[in-house]
Design a protein that fits this description.
single chain; 458 residues; mainly alpha; Growth Hormone, Chain: A
């Protein structure tokens, strides 16, 4: 009897995960695509007119890039707690509509001071989107499928630059449309999709598997049962009477804080590249005596991110198949940390972009796999708070990478010191994730899954 039931159970499992992958993940990934494009649009605008029009120094541009994350930090944890209380459908829709409205205002910015204010407001409006999306997807699939699902979701981030850089270049080339400079045209047209997607989210997203009309009864029962069994014993899975205690334990957990520092290193590298790669490519013209059009620079900016998307896809598939191991996160951190300084000593634009491509592949390989770790030992309110705290540290890194990179560029006259700092933080992430795995596992099983112990201990 048991042998006969097994194939049926497996078929229900495969069908349920396939429907989640088709019905929810592409839409949430599209939201992430627009989200990331809106927050990084400033990197395309600066070397294509905005920097000159607003008389920005590298430090001012870095500060404008980074202050977004300070706004995000202000409402990070409260926003994720609101999502847990009111449901992802309404809260993610609210986030998208409000950030789309703020992003639209960049079309008419007239000074560096106005730019700072709008970047801060954009962070406030977007606060909680990314950890909310991670939390939402984690609540739909059990851990053995999570790396695959988060990998599909994370594909949106590198593909945003693959598609977004040429799109931004094309929009910028329409200088004079509606009487606007090209970079203002870009801000106008990349903002509107956020508002439209926010309205659509109210009709597309579903808060819980049991409410999904596109799942049959067996699929609903399997998903809810698998998730309930997995959540039993995790921090945050107790009654509401203990919710405050679970929340406190999550926020004071040494493991959550170490994971926050690991994430800091990856995000520092991610945004140093995201905000300054177009400017570095623009500098190739003087450094190597070349000449690039706006579209040339856009296509060159996109080059590192297409291989990164491919590597991300296959790396997360492998992690999903064998289970997340320490080296799935530490290995890319080491590769990225060592490759960044090499980009400083190449002798041509092609060689520089090739090395930067290796760095981008390393960062994007590790990020979705990393996010499978917190949900292994957190659930409910504790998951909302813990994931938000980890992402808050990422936002600190986003601010620091933008401001510090620009400040060091002005101070030293080159990107040598800023990129060495990127390498240092990525190597630190490798050391920390290896350390936390060693402390929580038998030292003889260094390749064991990360974070499998069921409770958070401070």
């Amino acid at each position: 009897m048991g042998a006969a039931e097994a194939p049926t159970a497996n078929a229900v499992e495969r069908s349920a995960i396939r429907k989640v992958s088709v019905r929810l993940v592409p839409f949430v990934a599209l939201m992430f695509f627009v989200n990331y494009l809106d927050r990084t649009a400033i990197s395309f605008a600066e070397p294509n007119g905005m920097g000159d029009d607003l008389a920005l120094t590298a430090a001012q541009f870095g500060f404008a890039s980074g202050i977004f994350f300070l706004g995000y930090i202000v409402l990070e944890v409260p926003s994720n707690m609101a999502l847990h209380r009111f449901g992802a459908r309404r809260w993610l829709a609210r986030i998208m509509i409000s950030w789309g409205v703020v992003s639209l205002l960049f079309t008419w910015v007239q000074s560096s001071e106005q730019l700072y204010v709008l970047r801060f407001m954009l962070g406030v409006a977007e606060a909680g989107f990314f950890p909310g999306a991670i939390l939402f997807l984690s609540q739909w699939v059990p851990s053995q499928h999570r790396a695959k699902i988060l990998g599909l979701f994370y594909l949106a981030q590198p593909l945003t630059t693959v598609v977004g850089a040429p799109l931004a270049g094309w929009l910028i080339s329409h200088h004079g449309l509606f009487g606007l400079e090209g970079w203002r045209v870009m801000f106008l047209f990349v903002s509107l999709p956020a508002i439209l997607l926010g309205i659509a989210a109210l009709f597309v997203l579903v808060d819980r598997p049991e409410d999904a009309k596109w799942l049959n009864r067996d699929e609903k029962n399997w998903l809810t049962g698998a998730l309930a069994a997995e959540n039993a014993g995790k921090t945050g899975s107790t009654s509401r009477h203990h919710a405050k205690g679970d929340l406190r334990r999550a926020l004071t957990s040494s493991r959550v804080w170490v994971l926050s520092l690991v994430y800091f290193g990856f995000v520092y590298g991610l945004y140093a590249l995201a905000f300054f790669l177009p400017t570095i490519i623009d500098g190739f013209q003087e450094q190597f005596g070349t000449e690039f059009s706006v579209m040339d620079k856009a296509w060159i900016t996109a080059i590192p991110y297409l291989p990164a998307a491919v590597v991300l896809f296959f790396w997360t598939r492998h992690a999903n198949r064998v289970g997340t191991r320490t080296w799935h996160i530490a290995g890319p951190a080491v590769v990225g940390g060592l490759s960044v300084p090499l980009a400083l000593w190449t002798g041509s634009p092609a060689a520089t972009v090739a090395v930067i491509t290796i760095t981008a592949c390393a960062i994007f390989a590790a990020l979705p796999v990393f996010w499978t770790v917190p949900s292994r030992f957190l659930t409910g309110a504790a998951a909302a708070a813990g994931i938000a705290l980890i992402n808050t540290m990422g936002n600190v890194a986003g601010f620091a990478s933008g401001y510090v990179t620009g400040w060091l560029r002005d101070l030293t006259g080159s990107y040598v010191v800023p990129l060495y700092l990127v390498g240092f933080f990525m190597l630190l992430s490798a050391v920390l994730i290896t350390g936390i795995a060693t402390r929580t596992k038998d030292p003889r099983t260094a390749s064991a899954p990360v974070g499998d112990t069921p409770e958070v201990r401070s």
